[in-house]
């Protein structure tokens, strides 16, 4: 794909409009692809709604995944955020800095490749160096699923229009590896939003619901119409917000709890004593651990909350007497 061969018109406002989005894509030879789940937001009102519902404040460090042509990036910068944008598409990553410079005069823009990101130095309790002197964007080129550290100040929020095909893995990756995230506001496929925010016992409750609940409380906040995207997707979208909280108090590790969750939902509608038999080393051992955790062995995974799963994992890994 080639970059633009002609000058780009000066920005008419702080956000991208439909005509400029299409022109940027055309000049860069970009065709939105289903493989990367690319659906670009055309509507400035939707962008500002996302930023508003995320409670972004001036000077805050925000991480964005999949910035695309920069619609949401500019909305975050307009709110005064200091943005680190993770982009897997090298053409889009190369286009974004120029777009930001045209729309946000004086913005400090930097680009880093994911393999070159060092784990930030410093220890908990070190003073916050504060925001940079101007609106700031760091483009991090690479796969969001490979992120283990981010350049610059630690972010306190994740705000993104997540690619549909990797939304749950990306969400869980950042909740795990970026513990400074206090809240998340993402636009995802409506069905995914329902699964992430589902309570125990509901039709859509499953692995994403429990794993997200390990890190945060989740709720669906709004439905987003298909017409705000280019190309128009064939599914509905929604905003889901997660607010960080402490995981359940347990001696089991997160990996141990998640292994129980995966096993419990591997075959839906199966009693938990049967679902965990292989993991526990037999049906009897599973029944003992489940009962000791205060859970009905005939219950199904769909009925258990994250705290119950943690109790079961703890009992499965409890040291045996003698």
From TrEMBL:
<keyword id="KW-0963">Cytoplasm</keyword>
<keyword id="KW-0694">RNA-binding</keyword>
<dbReference type="InterPro" id="IPR011530">
    <property type="entry name" value="rRNA_adenine_dimethylase"/>
</dbReference>
<comment type="function">
    <text>Specifically dimethylates two adjacent adenosines (A1518 and A1519) in the loop of a conserved hairpin near the 3'-end of 16S rRNA in the 30S particle. May play a critical role in biogenesis of 30S subunits.</text>
</comment>
<keyword id="KW-0808">Transferase</keyword>
<feature type="binding site">
    <location>
        <position position="161"/>
    </location>
    <ligand>
        <name>S-adenosyl-L-methionine</name>
    </ligand>
</feature>
<feature type="binding site">
    <location>
        <position position="87"/>
    </location>
    <ligand>
        <name>S-adenosyl-L-methionine</name>
    </ligand>
</feature>
<dbReference type="InterPro" id="IPR023165">
    <property type="entry name" value="rRNA_Ade_diMease-like_C"/>
</dbReference>
<dbReference type="InterPro" id="IPR020598">
    <property type="entry name" value="rRNA_Ade_methylase_Trfase_N"/>
</dbReference>
<feature type="binding site">
    <location>
        <position position="66"/>
    </location>
    <ligand>
        <name>S-adenosyl-L-methionine</name>
    </ligand>
</feature>
<dbReference type="GO" id="GO:0003723">
    <property type="term" value="F:RNA binding"/>
</dbReference>
<protein>
    <recommendedName>
        <fullName>Ribosomal RNA small subunit methyltransferase A</fullName>
        <ecNumber>2.1.1.182</ecNumber>
    </recommendedName>
</protein>
<keyword id="KW-0698">rRNA processing</keyword>
<dbReference type="InterPro" id="IPR001737">
    <property type="entry name" value="KsgA/Erm"/>
</dbReference>
<feature type="compositionally biased region" description="Pro residues">
    <location>
        <begin position="126"/>
        <end position="135"/>
    </location>
</feature>
<comment type="similarity">
    <text>Belongs to the class I-like SAM-binding methyltransferase superfamily. rRNA adenine N(6)-methyltransferase family. RsmA subfamily.</text>
</comment>
<feature type="region of interest" description="Disordered">
    <location>
        <begin position="114"/>
        <end position="135"/>
    </location>
</feature>
<dbReference type="InterPro" id="IPR029063">
    <property type="entry name" value="SAM-dependent_MTases_sf"/>
</dbReference>
<dbReference type="GO" id="GO:0005829">
    <property type="term" value="C:cytosol"/>
</dbReference>
<keyword id="KW-0949">S-adenosyl-L-methionine</keyword>
<feature type="binding site">
    <location>
        <position position="143"/>
    </location>
    <ligand>
        <name>S-adenosyl-L-methionine</name>
    </ligand>
</feature>
<dbReference type="Pfam" id="PF00398">
    <property type="entry name" value="RrnaAD"/>
</dbReference>
<feature type="domain" description="Ribosomal RNA adenine methylase transferase N-terminal">
    <location>
        <begin position="46"/>
        <end position="246"/>
    </location>
</feature>
<keyword id="KW-0489">Methyltransferase</keyword>
<dbReference type="InterPro" id="IPR020596">
    <property type="entry name" value="rRNA_Ade_Mease_Trfase_CS"/>
</dbReference>
<feature type="binding site">
    <location>
        <position position="41"/>
    </location>
    <ligand>
        <name>S-adenosyl-L-methionine</name>
    </ligand>
</feature>
<dbReference type="GO" id="GO:0052908">
    <property type="term" value="F:16S rRNA (adenine(1518)-N(6)/adenine(1519)-N(6))-dimethyltransferase activity"/>
</dbReference>
<feature type="binding site">
    <location>
        <position position="39"/>
    </location>
    <ligand>
        <name>S-adenosyl-L-methionine</name>
    </ligand>
</feature>
